[in-house]
Design a protein that fits this description.
The protein has 5 helices and 6 strands; from the N terminus they run H-H-H-E-E-H-H-E-E-E-E. The protein is α+β, with helices and mostly antiparallel strands. A 6-stranded mixed sheet has the order 2-1-6-5-4-3, covered by helices on one side. The radius of gyration is 23 Å and the shape is elongated.
Length: 152
């Protein structure tokens, strides 16, 4: 091997190593861990709701004007608008009652999108409320957030 061939070989090795190192930096997709994270968000939502803390309840949602929320009360866009609607519909602890979720399904659509099906039960003095929720979670800036909520 002459000097030029040696240089080319060394450059090729350095290039191959740099590509290998770059690929190692990418996190490995672990659907079990991602599902556990999303379930933890849902658990935190229940705790926040049952503590009467709507702002903390909304932490699992995308803080964006593009957040979409559909319910029998109508279609809403935007994190702040959804929070304001919750505050209007549930003005105090008595109106909020006690929330429980039954997570029916957490399914990956891709490495950055999950769809989640939840049955909810709201026990309150004005009467119970039961329904279903379909959520689309997206990983935004390394954090899972609900970007779409259809509650019925």
């Amino acid at each position: 091997m002459d000097y030029q061939q040696g240089q080319k070989f060394v450059l090729l090795v350095v290039y191959a190593l740099s590509i290998a190192c770059e690929q190692q930096k990418k996190p490995v997709f672990d659907p079990i861990a991602e599902e556990a994270t999303i379930r933890a968000i849902l658990d935190a939502e229940q705790i926040a709701w049952n503590n009467g803390d709507l702002e903390a309840f909304m932490e699992g949602y995308w803080k964006s004007d593009s957040l979409q929320f559909m319910s029998p009360r109508g279609a809403n866009r935007g994190w702040q608008h959804v929070l304001d609607e919750y505050k209007t519909a549930y003005p105090d602890r008595a109106a909020m009652g006690t929330l429980s979720y039954e997570v029916l399904q957490v399914s990956p659509l891709s490495e950055i999108y999950y769809v989640v099906a939840v049955r909810f039960h709201l026990n309150r003095t004005t009467g119970p409320l039961d329904g279903m929720i379909t959520l689309i979670f997206k990983k935004v800036a390394g954090k899972w957030v609900a970007v779409y909520d259809h509650t019925s």
